Every structure is written in structure tokens, then in C-alpha cells.
Amino acid sequence: MFDSKNVFLGPILYFKAKSYTKGVLWLLLITTMLFANFFAALVFWIISGLLGKRKLEIKQDDTRNKLPYSSSGTHKSSYKKYHSLSIPRLNKIPEGPENGIAGFIDVETTGLSARRDEIIEFAISLFCFDRNSYNIIGIVDSYCGLREPSVPISPEASKVNGIYMRDVKGKDLDYNRINEMLEKADFFVSHNANFDRKFVRQLFPSVDIKDWLCSMNGINWYDKGFHSKGLQNLLSMHGIRPKSAHRAFSDVESAIKLLSLPTKHGKSYFYELMNGYIEAKNYYKNKPGYYNGKHYTEYAETIRILRREGEDDAAEKILLKLLDAIELESKAEGHGVAPWYYEQLAIIYRKRKDYHKEIGILERFAKQKHAPGVKPPRLLERLKKAKELANQVI
């Protein structure tokens, strides 16, 4: 707060608030008035002081609002301890249905395009949380590895993450170890999940089977008074100092630490992230055309990647779930079902020579409403062929 005598500092307050242009304009106006009328100049000086005082108060409030405990007087001292805060390391995954496992993932890449660029560093930490309170209990496993890409690392990427081709020469990830960890996670978390997910599924297509939560967009950082939702900025504003900024493992550890911190309401950021995720999931749970919070069309690329990588079992599981969503939407909207998803299952079953399952899925398609186009007749013709093949086996 400012004492009332500061009002008589006039335009000087604007300079303190770093509003130099307004300070200069007030000084010019008052100087001009001084030659014409001393009292008028004095009035303008006081007015500028009142306005300048208010500007400094607003600036002070804005600074305070950048911290989560803006309404208390202890937020600065609270922040100083966060950089030394550590998440417990657990020797094993705690047993019991009240304990959940999430995998926080971060990657460094050769560039920003998931189609042209590749992962050069992959990090994941599995952390245990309480399903009731959503408090983070501890980290149960971690992995980080470098990978030599088949494309050059862009200078822009190296400038950010400090990784150059010489650092990744001849190196590769432990794919078996990563797959084991991915299997243990109930879901994944990333800071800008849309970015990380696109890259990760190129190497590990099965990650799209599980949900991804985004700690950048799943928490309303702006409403909490933060001027940025970028990870490094959030860490800095919370007094968390990563060992190496923009390096995958350091970012993962720091992000988990950030999520464990309490907000001014006493709940952790992870609690808010989970609450938003559950609300969205419940909203889309019975909405026609949606599976796990996403429209069935959003899974097309995932199916393509899984099939390309030979992971037909994983593709089959998703496709069977998607058919329920597709048929619910077809009935609700009155349009024909999307035949491509039935066709992919039919191809998988034909490849396995499981003609009875192929017939079953094609007969399921035959019972649905069909949209115009060449594919429905083609699938019905495929049904005839599958029956012929099944008879030959008998």
C-alpha cells in the first residue's frame, strides 16, 4: 500500500510504474500550465499523482496475482521452498484399488512436425497417486534415453534443447523397457499432450489406446493469475528450478513436482487436472459417436499406425469399441455408418484366416444403415467371399 503523501510525487509515480510516456506528457502539461496559472498547475499535479498512485497499486496487484496465494501475505516465502521440494521415490507400486499409476511423458525432437521430424530424447516417469484425493504419492519408475534420428536435428531445436547430432550418434531407446512402463500406466500426462502424443505414437502406437491428460491446457493457469502456461515459465513462477531446462527427464521430474503443489484452495494442481478430465469423460461417455472423450474419427490415424506397425491386436480392441460409438451416432443422427472401420476389422480377421469373425463383423455391417458410395457394396461382396472361404475350410 502507498501513503497518501505519495500523491504529491505527481508524474514521478508514472516513472516508477514504468509508464514513461504518460509521465513525460503529465510533466509537459503541468510545466505549460505553470506559466499560465500556478493553482491550475498544482491541481493537475495532484491529479497526476492520484492516477499514478493508482497505477502503481494495480501493478503491485498484478505482480501478486501471478502467484497462486495472491490473497495471502505469505506466498513469496512459500515459493522459496519449492525448488528444493522432492517427490518420494518408491521401491514398488503400492497395492490396493485406491492407488493409481500415471505416466508423465516428455520428448525432445528434431523439429515441430510429427510427419517430418523424429524423437531424439524420450523420458517417462510412472508416479503413484491416491484415487480419492488425487494426491501424488511418489515416483515408482523412471526412464530416459537418447535416440539417433534418420533426419537431421534442426538448428532451432538444438538451440532450445541443446541436443546435437554428435550427442545422439549411435544411440537408441530401450523399447522393451518403455513398453513395459507404458503398459503399467492407467493413462499418460504431458505438458502439451497434443504435441508429445503425435510423436510418441510413431514409435509406440499402442499409447493411443489410453487417455492422455494435458497439464498445459487441462489446468486454467490464466485464471490463477499466471501470464503464461509454458512449462518453463510456470516452473520459474513457482520457484522450481529444473536441472536442465528443455531436457526431457528434467522437465518430467519438474512437471510432476509442479502438479503436486497445492493451490490456494488446498487441492493440488493434479487434483484440478483429474477433475477436469473426469468431467469431460462423463460428458462424452454416452454421447453418440464418442469413445473415451474423443470422436471416433480422431482414432483413424491411430488405427493406421497400429496396423502399419503390425499391432493388429491393439487395433482390433479399439475398433470394436469404436463400432459401438459409430452405430449409436448412426441411430441418433439418422445417417449411414462409417464402413472404413468395419473394413479394417474384416482385413485383420482375413489376415488371421479367422473367417467366422470376419463374417460376424461384415454381417454386423450389413444390418446397419449405409451411406451412398462404393464401399458398402464392396463390403457386402466381401461378406460373400468370406462365407465361401469359411466353407472351404470346413
What amount of the residues lies in strands?
A: 5-15%
Low-confidence stretches: 1-5, 63-81
Give the full name of the CATH homologous superfamily of the largest domain. Answer: Ribonuclease H-like superfamily/Ribonuclease H
List how many beta strands DSSP finds. 7
List SSEs in N-to-C order: HHHHEEEHHHEHEHHHEEHHHHH
- Give the count of helical stretches: 16
Number of domains: 3
CATH architecture name of the largest domain = 2-Layer Sandwich
> What gyration radius follows from the Cα positions, in whole Å?
29 Å
**Arithmetic mean pLDDT:** 85
CATH fold naming of the largest domain? Nucleotidyltransferase, domain 5
Give the neighbour order of strands across the main sheet.
3-2-1-4-5
* Relative helix content: 40-55%
Which characteristics define this entry?
single chain; 394 residues; alpha/beta; Nucleotidyltransferase, domain 5; Serine Threonine Protein Phosphatase 5, Tetratricopeptide repeat; 5-stranded mixed sheet; two-stranded antiparallel sheet; 16 helices; 7 strands; disordered N terminus
Mind explaining what this structure looks like?
This protein is of the alpha/beta class and 394 residues long. The chain has 3 domains: 4-65, no CATH class; 86-284, Ribonuclease H-like superfamily/Ribonuclease H (Nucleotidyltransferase, domain 5, 2-Layer Sandwich), CATH 3.30.420.10; 290-393, Serine Threonine Protein Phosphatase 5, Tetratricopeptide repeat (Alpha Horseshoe), CATH 1.25.40. 51% of the residues lie in helices and 11% in strands. The protein contains 16 helices and 7 strands. It has helices spanning 12-16, 20-36, 38-65, 75-80, 155-161, 165-168, 175-184, 193-203, 231-237, 248-260, 269-285, 300-308, 312-333, 339-352, 355-366, 375-393; strands at residues 99-109, 119-130, 136-146, 187-190, 212-214, 290-291, 294-295. The protein has a 5-stranded mixed sheet, with helices on both faces. The chain has a two-stranded antiparallel sheet with strand order 6-7. Strand 2 (119-130) and strand 3 form a beta hairpin. Helix 2 runs antiparallel to helix 3, helix 12 packs antiparallel against helix 13 and helix 14 runs antiparallel to helix 15 (355-366). It is elongated, with a radius of gyration of 29 Å. The protein starts with 11 loop residues before the first helix and ends with a helix.
